[in-house]
Amino acid sequence: MNAPSPRLILRLAILALCTVVIQETAVSQISIFGISADLTPLVVMSVGLLSGSLPGAVMGFATGLLVDTVLVQTLGVTSLLYIAIGYWSGRLRELRDRCGEDLELLSGDDPSAAEAMLAGASGVISVTANVAPRAMHDLCAAALGGDADRTRELDARLQVLHRALFVESNPIPTKWAVEQLGLIRGGIRLPLTRLSAQAQDTVREAMRAAGVECAH
Predict the structure, then answer these.
(1) By the 8 A CB rule, do 57 and 87 touch?
(2) Residue 47 sits in which domain range?
(3) Nearest C-alpha neighbor of 21 from the set 55, 69, 59
(4) Ramachandran region of residue 5, left (φ > 0), alpha (ψ -120 to 50) or beta?
(5) Domain total for the chain?
(6) Residue 164 domain-assigned?
(7) Which of 49, 54, 64, 53 shows the shortest CA–CA distance to 16?
(8) Tens digit of pLDDT for each residue in 51-105?
(9) Domain annotation covers residue 136
(10) DSSP label of 2
(11) Burial class (CB in 10 A: 0-12, 13-18, 19+), 64
(12) CB atoms within 10 A of CB 84
């Protein structure tokens, strides 16, 4: 495992700066159904998947430090999280390179699953697929087939739903959504509680945006 060159570190620092500037000046201002997108962890993860664990960790450190600085937070808190994201994304890439076709990598995160599959993951363990199975099937088929444009087009429609299904603790929003599709009966057992009225509106609108119509 070779250490990143000074030239690569400089490029990553510039990429981190551009990412944070775009996030804080543009992307963070966009709110759909009360949910704001966050570009920074996706970029950190992509660097790890494409370049390896050490570049991913460097990118995570630089991005997290800039986020903490811009938001006037305790320095290093976000860096620790982003270092982990970048490093372990890179380790997955390195493990796959060593094992070749003998290792199947699955994403466990719907919002980043499309990019993970385009970067070499074999599929996704999906929450969203419980609510929008056809859409997630089409997304996976496009990604695994190497059609990046189609994959990102489908993923853009699903991003709001991906996030809305975690507007409260999982699996509460998913159970409520599946109930609205008429697939299960109402009611939920402790320690889970019923989805709040405000969150119901958020999930319902996200389902409609993704092309999923409620049965009632």
Answers:
(1) yes
(2) 1-100
(3) 69
(4) beta
(5) 1
(6) no
(7) 64
(8) 889 898 999 999 988 888 888 778 778 888 899 999 988 888 888 777 766 677 7
(9) no
(10) P
(11) buried
(12) 15
Peptide bond into 4 cis (omega under 30): no
Closest CA to 81 of 122, 45, 36: 45
Structure tokens at 78: 């976000």
190 assigned to some structural domain: no
Residue 122 falls within a domain, yes or no?
no
State the CB neighbour count (10 A cutoff) for residue 45: 26
Give phi and psi for 106, each to the nearest 5.
Answer: -120, 135
**Distance, CA of 193 to CA of 30 (rounded, Å):** 30
Cβ neighbourhood burial of 150 (10 Å; 0-12, 13-18, 19+): middle
- Looking at the chain, the whole-number percentage of residues with pLDDT higher than 90 is 28
Question: In whole angstroms, what is the distance from residue 168 CA to residue 178 CA?
Answer: 15
**Phi (first) and psi of residue 95, to 5 degrees:** -65, -40
Give the number of other CB atoms < 10 A from CB of residue 44: 31
Instruction: Please name the residue that has the structure tokens 């409520």.
Output: 176
Q: How many angstroms separate the CA atoms of 54 and 91, rounded?
A: 9
| HEC assignment per residue over 23-65 | HHHCHHHCEECCEECCCHHHHHHHHHHHHCHHHHHHHHHHHHH
